[in-house]
Fold these 3 entries.
Entry 1:
Amino acid sequence: MGIGAYIIYFIIIMIIPIWAQAKVRNAYSKYSQVENSTGMTGAQVARRILDHNGLYDVQIEEVPGTLSDHYDPSDKVVRLSTDIYHGNTIAGTAVAAHEVGHAIQDDKDYAPLRMRHALVPLANIGSSLSWLFILAGMLLHLAGAALIGVIFFGMAVLFQIVTLPVEFNASSRALNQIVDLGIVQSDEKRHARKVLTAAALTYVAAALVAVLELLRFILMFIGLNNNEND
């Protein structure tokens, strides 16, 4: 791959996540200005869905930051950022419901969620050590070291790929819940879907960039291995 191709490649993998982040922030910003018809806050939405699904033991906590919302399976807590927790907007409704979607997945023993949890330590090891082995392999012309790095990085990529069905399923559950419970009206459903779709794009972008990087590393390993065998 020539220098020009490398430049184009790196521009692409930089633009993809930036574009995805812009989409989610634009959607969040737009629908953070639109109040939901029920007047329910994000915390109330989360509690309503949790109770409807019998998840009375799952707590809801306020956390600082913007879009720092998440579900903690170890403590059984849905954590909502301040704006989401107290706000009564379409964006807040969608985000709160999405995080509760993860709590429902946890309760239902959703297989991809379990797989993602199992992959966390491997992904952490892979993302932190892969570069060292790949760099050592390239600099020292050691195909074996590069291969180890590729395998490590592959574990991190697998985590990104498994994350996709987890996030899409949580969004699907969220949309169904807020519609079935009458938390949003028919005209609001479309807006909530836009927020959830934009958020999902960030995970798609991360997975796509990870796959592209893995393919690049595989090609580098093949080239290095061929040179060793010549």
Note: The mean pLDDT is 93.
Entry 2:
Amino acid sequence: MGKVTLSDVAQAAGVSIATASWAINDNKKVRIPEATRVKVRKVADRLGYRPNALAKGLAQGASSLIGFVADGVATTPFAGQMIAGAQEEAWAHGKLLLVVNTNGETALEESALALLREHQVQGVIYSTWYHRSVAFPKGLEGIPTVLVNCFDDDNSHAVVVPDEEQGGYAATSELLKAGHRRVMFLNTVSPSPARTDRLKGYRRALDEWGVAFDEALVVPVRPDQDGGYAAARTVVKSGVEAVFCHNDRVAMGLYDGLKERGVSIPDDVSVVGFDNQEVISAHLHPALTTVGLPHYELGVLGVRRLLAMDEIPSEEGADQLRTLVECPTVRRDSVRTL
């Protein structure tokens, strides 16, 4: 027989993994019936369960570990930035970051969360590789958790997310400040906070500069290189002098499409992207002016928010639970000042 796990004990005792952990480790912060505590411990003894050495000494129900669980962030171009930010902030507070990449697999996520419970981590950063709504995992119930780059459906948990509206505002303002007035927005067709909030930012910038909103200048495209390439014809036909692209991949495709039509960037059309995916934006010709997604800062502020949870009133509202992180403008060579 293999090593007996906390999950085995919980199943045999007919309780949740969380209850089994609290009973075995005598967590003083959680109140469970004494009969349940005794039952779980007897089952653990019968099965020969031996608590993790780290967890065994955690009388206060917390450790020096912080869990970082993600659906795919560890395999994306921005992974290193977010993980580095979280790791460095955790280390600055004497904590260690335990990173688990689940690839979106439910079984793997459940196992990862059970492992984190067994180690009685101080809390968990739960992240997704793109900004979206998620169902709060049941395995995180009872564990201090901050959602990073995502948010729960009922807005009842602390979240740290990019300020998409401010980012859209910054991108559009960059073109307006350069003197352009007919600014097209190539927006994604994929439903997301990025789609709706960047559009809000685009419209707010136009309004502040006294430029009338023209619905015909908001063009839905696939959020990839092919989408930008296909949009080149629309850009040329419209006669616009500036384009804000939903992301850098769309901008890359637009570069190719405009070049084929003899349109020069930025002499004929100024272009601004979004993401600051440097493998793209810094190496296009000309180098792409863009707005960055603040992945490093998301990691830092996620850990900082988690460590401050004991100081924050539990009755705070949705606005107080949400931390918006500014998306910075990265100026390069794709915008011409008129």
Note: DSSP finds 13 helices and twelve strands in the chain.
Entry 3:
Amino acid sequence: MNITASMVKELREMTGAGMMDCKKALSETGGDMDKAVEFLREKGLAAAEKKAGRIAAEGVIDTNVSEDGKVASIVEVNSETDFVAKNDKFKEYVAAVAAQAAKTNASNIDEFLEEKWELDPTKTVKEELSSMIAIIGENMNIRRFEKLVSENGFITSYIHGGGRIGILVELESDVVNEEVKEAGKNIAMQIAAMSPKYISRNDVAEDFIAHEKEIIKAQIKNDPANASKPENIIEKMIEGRLNKELKEICLLDQVYVKDGDMNVAKYLESVSKQVGTTITVKHFVRFETGEGLEKKTEDFAAEVAKQMGL
């Protein structure tokens, strides 16, 4: 397969690896992007997570939480430009979409778009979106939503960077006072900052752990410094690196950002002792604007040349 410069550029943005390493990885894997990422990881040239450079679409994330904290929603609405994303009318519309999502019974975005628009039942959500596109003069998209309902506890939200990142956290607690609410806000800020994938190690799938062990083993074997090390030492190294990775992706294992001397689990234990009841993180949702999307980039000089027939 012919490896193009754009493929090399994309892989470099995803992994942070060098240009020649990316070209080699694509050549070795027949241009398969996912396999090329794994190839680079096995060589110790790429991180486990894709870099944030992939997150490029414009838009706003907003949340809606009921007064009693029992029902909440989070939505992402995309726009073409950052200019529109900062527009007050656009933000008001996103807030209305979040309010709609808090009342919805839809299980997916297609069902949601066909619902009656709460603020004007003569229209569907999709038709109101079309009206807003006409008013603002730019393409927009309700990309995703999630709704949470708490049985025993409450839900808190946090918006970071003017709507770039949005968080919902459901905490279970027999007591819901100011200290517990503050703990919820602190956990939400932790999730925004550290982007965990799971609450605890118990939530991590066995096949994910097995896959990561294989990647780590390949990394260790590919390092000449480990050539003479016995298998039992290699196994200990694998476990050590896996534990380090799990500490980064599991919320309760993460170092607590407001106090580096404890992890999140210890922080929750300390608040639980203060209020006299156990506080448990039951669920969280983290949306970041444009996750997995690519922003359309324009080469102005190339566009001019094209129009002039050069």
Note: The first strand starts at residue 58 and ends at 65.
